């Protein structure tokens, strides 16, 4: 059990380390952080929460045939999503807190969705490369003889 | 026509059609219709820079159109690399592995040329597509991170997978090298300063998207768990009758046979 949890930590560290190294080099070159980073992080959290929530509600609907489409999970998920939307609306409306180079609330929300579309596509293409290359590396090895006949 | 209505008609509704089509396809009820809906939505989003040129959102569709060719080449290459190897089903000719590897590296090369050469996606008035500088650092950062994680996963969980792990680590180092080059050398239409600025924003984007998505999945898990918990405990079924036991025993005996040596 201990070995398993340490492997997970190692895996998370391996995923985070390259990003942190590149950002650290970036800081050392420019000697400062980007002032809009927090806004981008906040907008990305809220937008992906709402979009992924909507996709999950769609899945609830399309996969609920065998359960006679119970309404309780729908109501619960709509409620969770409504809270996310309310928080998003409240934070973006708060002047300079999450508003980036956009004219207002509606422009910021639409820009967030397109931004997520682009960054999500980038992550999808990167996943295709990494996962595909992993499988290619696994299947590339010659088949090994597991048991020798006596 | 009202510009907002035009944008809704030619960009936002087609964008919504993509997940709807995917849902139909996955649910298995109307697979072909789902594929048609999703594909039509994707095509309409990609050509939105012609259908609604005044909408700023159409830059997103234009970027997807610009990267579709190297992405398809990458997918083709990955398919060849995976199925050209030792797979039990759907195995391709061994040359597919080499052609696949070449296709993958050519597609990465095309992405590099899109940054450093004249292939950069140009949107309005000869200016670079504003989302290119969002896509490129995010792709580089995320692929570096995922390749590194995959490399460690192969070495940790796999049995004698050191060579394969090293291949993935090399790819991660290659992507890091490309990122460093973009941080130092100016692109064709973008500067190294801009790239460094957007690297920060990409890191924020990746962490934000992962956190937001995880929160949504967590919310769904809580909703489903609380719903399942509220359901009454299912009643136990009555024990089998003598006739049912006899039937089961006769079935079992008819399938168990063989003579003693």
Write the layout of secondary structure elements.
The complex is a heterodimer of chains A (150) and B (261).
Chain A: H1 2-30, H2 37-62, H3 71-93, H4 105-139
Helix pairs in contact in A: 2-3, 2-4
Chain B: H1 3-27, H2 31-46, H3 48-51, H4 58-83, H5 95-116, H6 132-157, H7 162-184, H8 192-230, H9 242-255
- Shape field of chain B: extended
What's the average pLDDT of chain B? 90
As residue ranges, the low-confidence spans of chain A are none
Q: Which sequence of SSEs, written as H and E, runs from N to C of chain B? A: HHHHHHHHH
Can you describe this structure?
With 150 residues, chain A is mostly helical. Chain A has two domains: 1-33; 36-139, no CATH class. Helix content of chain A is 75%, strand content 0%. Chain A contains four helices and no strands. Chain A has helices at 2-30, 37-62, 71-93, 105-139. In chain A, helix 2 packs antiparallel against helix 3 (71-93) and helix 2 packs across helix 4. Chain A is flat, with a radius of gyration of 22 Å. By secondary structure, chain B is an all-alpha fold. Chain B folds into two domains: 8-46; 59-227, no CATH class. Chain B is built from nine helices and no strands. Chain B has helices at residues 3-27, 31-46, 48-51, 58-83, 95-116, 132-157, 162-184, 192-230, 242-255. In chain B, helix 6 (132-157) crosses helix 8. Chain B is extended and about 85 Å long. The relative contact order of chain B is 0.06. The model of chain B has no long low-confidence stretch (mean pLDDT 90).
Notable traits:
heterodimer, A: about 150 residues, mainly alpha, 4 helices, flat, B: extended
Short description:
The complex is a heterodimer of chains A (150) and B (261). With 150 residues, chain A is mainly alpha-helical.
């Amino acid at each position: 059990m201990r070995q398993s949890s340490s492997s997970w930590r190692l895996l998370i560290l391996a995923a985070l380390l390259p990003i942190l190294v590149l950002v650290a080099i970036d800081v050392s070159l420019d000697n400062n952080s980007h002032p809009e980073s927090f806004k981008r992080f906040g907008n990305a959290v809220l937008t992906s929460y709402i979009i992924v929530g909507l996709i999950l509600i769609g899945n609830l609907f399309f996969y609920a045939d065998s359960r006679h489409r119970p309404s309780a999970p729908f109501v619960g998920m709509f409620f969770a999503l409504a809270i996310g939307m309310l928080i998003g609306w409240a934070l973006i409306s708060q002047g300079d807190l999450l508003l980036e180079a956009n004219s207002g609330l509606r422009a910021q929300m639409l820009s967030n969705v397109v931004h997520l579309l682009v960054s999500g596509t980038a992550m999808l293409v990167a996943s295709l490369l990494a996962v595909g290359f992993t499988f290619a590396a696994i299947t590339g090895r010659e088949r090994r003889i597991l048991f020798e006949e006596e | 026509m009202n510009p907002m209505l035009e944008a809704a008609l030619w960009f936002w509704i087609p964008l919504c059609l993509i997940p709807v089509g995917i849902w139909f396809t996955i649910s298995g009820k109307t697979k072909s219709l789902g594929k048609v809906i999703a594909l039509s939505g994707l095509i309409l989003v990609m050509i939105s820079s012609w259908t609604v040129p005044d909408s700023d959102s159409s830059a997103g569709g234009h970027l997807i159109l610009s990267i579709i060719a190297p992405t398809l080449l990458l997918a083709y290459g990955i398919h060849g690399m995976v199925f050209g190897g030792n797979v039990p089903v759907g195995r391709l000719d061994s040359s597919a592995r080499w052609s696949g590897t070449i296709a993958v590296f050519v597609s990465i090369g095309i992405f590099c040329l899109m940054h450093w050469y004249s292939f950069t996606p140009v949107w309005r008035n000869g200016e670079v597509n504003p989302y290119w500088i969002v896509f490129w650092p995010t792709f580089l950062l995320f692929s570096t991170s995922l390749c590194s994680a995959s490399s460690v996963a192969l070495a940790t969980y796999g049995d004698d997978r050191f060579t394969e792990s090293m291949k993935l680590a090399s790819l991660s180092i290659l992507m890091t090298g490309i990122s460093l080059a973009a941080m130092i050398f100016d692109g064709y239409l973008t500067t190294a300063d801009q790239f460094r600025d957007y690297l920060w924003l990409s890191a924020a984007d990746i962490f934000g998207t992962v956190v937001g998505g995880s929160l949504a999945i967590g919310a769904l898990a809580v909703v489903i768990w609380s719903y399942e918990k509220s359901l009454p405990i299912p009643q136990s079924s009555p024990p089998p009758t003598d006739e049912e036991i006899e039937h089961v025993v006769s079935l079992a005996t008819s399938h168990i046979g063989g003579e003693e040596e």
